[in-house]
């Protein structure tokens, strides 16, 4: 099969017509793949994908490749849509695998790290975001959400956006927030807590300054009070109203941990999902991280509302809470997207590794028939796109879609003997890294290496900043 559209190139100065020779109007042709998985109903052995001006122009079988200005080889490789990360806290790579916190469950883990995060400033956030987005691209991610929920200084999300524009990933920053300090019964120190007015005002500023709702958008803002156990009820209510008025999405953590459940019962007299509904968040505008501790009726309500779940099994298992049950969530009709979560709980940011963890966790919960590699790939592409409100355009390779593509290197040793199902092999063999990661048609990773200049310098600066921040813990 071959499906294609004629690429259009505004301002290219050429008018194709029957009486003039066709020049290559595709800028990139990815060809000779072992298998192209479109996530749009086709798996094409020996396939190709053509791109022009940041858009997929066609996919097809060997023998009918179109012309293109340049060719990227996918020989011996698997081609998929770029993976989409629905939940992250990139800034936490500044406190990654921080030894004093590695044996704690969620709220003690947070209390150990919060004092360090009071040192965040624009430089620290810009550098950590640059490094974190580069790491994501090296793991096959082309679009990421990110919740920055510690704001000891203003304009930190602006710094993230500067980094995202340099790296070139499709970026969905969520304006995280804490407005309940330790004095008022919350877990966070005063230095990380803002007033509801400050949070709502800055949220509106960010949306006005940066949010792009257009198809193919490289940047969309969402609003994200951190968790009901760390913010006021009023902030949850007002944020939902603001998101409705600004027509942006809502994000928070929900039912992540037994401590949160206990807090909600004691404080509101309601379980986390009941409180979530009470503050007006039960809608398709919202997607939530985790939902580890949920009852059948709660999952059914999320499905009815259209509220998606960011499934981050690596993080919740590392923090001792266990993984949400992907089979139970899917059986209830909940849309589940994959997420790697923050770099100080999961510690890695490879969506391939998270996908493999999700496959093992699903089978541990539901038995060997509970999930296949294709189920997990769906959570990392099509369903993750739906969680971010972009199910109509991202997560599939089809003509007209944004050109977010990953060519996965299939190591000859790790894949020796894997002949019968390359998608299963992709997730069960490995580890796997991309040969090429393209976002909006632009290679961020090419031949296994970042195309970005200054990588070594950026890592040196990151080391300096992260050591400085971690010394704060040593002095505490
Ligand atoms: Zn999180």
From TrEMBL:
**Can you give the residue ranges of the Amidohydrolase-related domain?**
78-412
**Swiss-Prot/TrEMBL keywords:** Hydrolase
What the entry lists under CDD domains is as follows: ATZ_TRZ_like
Annotated segments matching region Disordered: 1-23
Q: Tell me yes or no: is Hydrolase among this UniProt entry's keywords.
A: yes
The record ties this protein, via InterPro entries, to: Amidohydro-rel, Metal-dep_hydrolase_composite, Metal_Hydrolase, MTA/SAH_deaminase
- Pfam family name, one: Amidohydro_1
Q: Which residues form a coiled coil?
A: none
Name of the protein this chain belongs to:
Amidohydrolase family protein
Give the organism, scientific name: Streptomyces smyrnaeus
């Amino acid at each position: 099969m071959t499906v294609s559209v004629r690429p259009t190139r505004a301002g290219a100065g050429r008018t194709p017509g029957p009486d003039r020779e066709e020049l290559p109007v595709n800028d990139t042709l990815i060809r000779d793949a072992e298998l192209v998985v479109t996530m749009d109903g086709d798996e094409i052995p020996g396939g190709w994908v053509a791109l022009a001006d940041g858009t997929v122009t066609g996919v097809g079988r060997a023998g009918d490749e179109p012309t293109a200005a340049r060719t990227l080889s996918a020989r011996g490789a698997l081609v998929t849509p770029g993976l989409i990360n629905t939940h992250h806290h990139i800034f936490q790579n500044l406190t990654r695998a921080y030894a004093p916190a590695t044996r704690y469950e969620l709220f003690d883990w947070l209390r150990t790290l919060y004092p360090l995060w009071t040192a965040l400033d624009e430089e620290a956030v810009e550098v950590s975001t640059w490094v974190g987005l580069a790491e994501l691209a090296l793991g096959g991610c082309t679009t990421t959400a990110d919740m920055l929920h510690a704001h000891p200084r203003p304009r930190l999300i602006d710094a993230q956006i500067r980094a995202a524009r340099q790296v070139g990933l499709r970026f969905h920053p969520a304006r995280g927030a804490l407005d309940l300090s330790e004095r008022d019964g919350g877990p966070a120190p005063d230095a990380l807590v803002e007033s509801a007015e400050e949070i709502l005002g800055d949220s509106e500023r960010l949306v006005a300054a940066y949010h792009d709702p257009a198809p193919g958008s490289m940047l969309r803002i969402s609003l994200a009070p951190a968790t009901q156990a760390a913010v006021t009820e009023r902030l949850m209510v007002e944020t939902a109203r603001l998101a409705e008025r600004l027509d942006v999405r809502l994000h928070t953590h929900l039912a992540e941990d037994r401590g949160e459940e206990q807090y909600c019962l004691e404080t509101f007299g309601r379980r986390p999902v009941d409180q979530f509904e009470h503050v007006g968040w039960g809608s398709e505008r919202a997607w939530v991280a985790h939902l580890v501790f949920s009852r059948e009726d709660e999952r059914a309500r999320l499905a009815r509302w259209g509220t998606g779940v960011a499934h981050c099994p690596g993080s919740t298992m590392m923090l001792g809470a266990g993984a949400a049950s992907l089979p139970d969530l899917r059986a209830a009709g909940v849309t589940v997207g994959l997420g790697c979560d923050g770099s100080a709980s999961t510690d890695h940011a490879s969506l391939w590794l998270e996908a493999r963890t999700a496959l093992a966790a699903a089978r541990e919960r539901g038995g060997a028939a509970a999930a296949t590699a294709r189920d997990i790939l769906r959570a990392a592409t099509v369903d993750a796109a739906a969680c971010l409100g972009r199910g109509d355009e991202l997560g599939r390779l089809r003509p007209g879609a944004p050109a977010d593509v990953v060519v996965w290197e299939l190591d000859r040793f790790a894949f020796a003997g894997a002949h019968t199902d390359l998608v299963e092999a992709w997730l069960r063999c490995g580890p796997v890294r991309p040969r090429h990661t393209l976002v909006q048609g632009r290679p961020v990773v090419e031949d296994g290496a970042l195309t970005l200049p200054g990588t070594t310098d950026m890592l040196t600066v990151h080391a300096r900043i992260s050591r400085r921040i971690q010394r704060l813990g040593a002095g505490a």
